[in-house]
Amino acid sequence: MNMQMESVLPNGFVLEKAQNMMHGTYRGITFLIVPMEAENQYHVQIYAEVEKNPNKDTFLRSFSSIGQKYPFVHHTSYNGSDMVSVYVVSGGQDDKANLMAAIAAAASECEMYEIHNCCAHCKNVVPLHAAAVDNAPLLICDSCFSQMMNRTGSTAARKENPLPGIIGAVLGVLIGSALWIAIAQIGFIAGIAGLAIVFCGMKGYEVLGGKLSKKGIVICIILSCLVILGAEFVSLAIAVYREMNKMYELTFTEALSWMPEVIQRPQTIVIIVKDLVVGYLLTIWASFAKLKSVWHQVGEVPAQHHIVRF
Question: Which residues does 3 contact at the CB level (< 8 Å), separation at least 6?
Answer without folding.
Answer: 35, 37, 40, 42, 90, 95
